[in-house]
Write a structure and sequence with these properties.
Elements (H helix, E strand, L loop, with lengths): L11 H13 L4 H8 L3 H13 L13 H30 L5
Helix pairs in contact: 1-3
């Protein structure tokens, strides 16, 4: 018997609406969570994420914030440059050996 719970996913619009409802009701989280059927901690986390960065809050599944995407790209380019450097070091060592 499989009793594993599946994690519910909410759209960005749903999260923003929940936050808007909470702000409209003067911050009464309990009333909003009862109406929406979500846990209070979930709504509080959404509110915190929204306060921290309104523009990039809730980017979606598989989508990164612009700065995170740029960091990921730069790390990849650095890794590739390091690999190329290592290959050139090995090639230099091979070609600089004296032949008898």
């Amino acid at each position: 018997m499989n009793t594993k719970k599946t994690r519910r996913r909410y759209t960005r619009e749903f999260k923003l609406e929940a936050i808007r409802l909470t702000e409209r009701r003067g911050g009464k989280v309990t009333e909003v969570v009862n109406n929406l059927g979500i846990h209070p901690n979930v709504l509080e986390r959404w509110m915190r994420e929204f306060r921290d960065d309104r523009r990039y809050a809730f980017p979606g599944n598989g989508n990164l914030r612009t700065t995170d995407e740029e960091i990921r790209l730069l790390k990849r380019r650095l890794r590739e440059a390091e690999e190329e450097r290592d290959i050139l070091k090995k090639a230099l060592a091979i070609f600089s050996k004296k032949k008898p």
